[in-house]
């Protein structure tokens, strides 16, 4: 796909709600015509609670992904892998941009 064919939606991790609800929310983006997702930073946020104020670059935000950092990373990788699959294979056919 060429860059001209991308329809990108930016998502704030904290606005998507708990991680276990993300699949349905991301699927809604696909159904409304988006084929690429840009996530604002997903790392643990600092005191300002802005996704751009990162406290720990190696940990996903615990209020979204849960306290178990290893499980959070595995779950997020699984969601990305599943969402990248073509729709005919149970995925969403999405591109991800960071």
Itemize the secondary structure elements and their pairings.
Layout: E1 8-11, H1 22-31, E2 36-39, E3 43-45, E4 54-60, H2 62-65, H3 69-84, E5 95-97
Parallel strand pairs: 1-2, 2-5
Antiparallel strand pairs: 3-4
**Pairing-aware structural class of the strands and helices?**
alpha/beta
**Rg, nearest Å:** 14 Å
Strand coverage percent: 15-25%
Sheet with most strands: 3 strands, parallel
- Unreliable segments of 5+ consecutive residues: none
| String of helices and strands | EHEEEHHE
Please give the number of β-strands.
5
Determine the mean pLDDT: 91
Distance between the termini: 18 Å
Oligomeric category: single chain
The helical percent reads 25-40%
Give the strand order of the largest sheet, numbering strands 1, 2, ... along the chain: 1-2-5
Q: Count up the helices.
A: 3
Shape: globular
List its traits:
21% strand; globular; two-stranded antiparallel ribbon; alpha/beta
Explain how this protein is built.
The protein is an alpha/beta fold and 98 residues long. It has a domain of 60 residues. Helices cover 31% and strands 21% of the residues. It is built from three helices and five strands. It has a three-stranded parallel β-sheet, with helices on one face. The longest helix is centred in the C-terminal third of the chain and has 16 residues. It is globular, with a radius of gyration of 14 Å. The two termini are 18 Å apart.
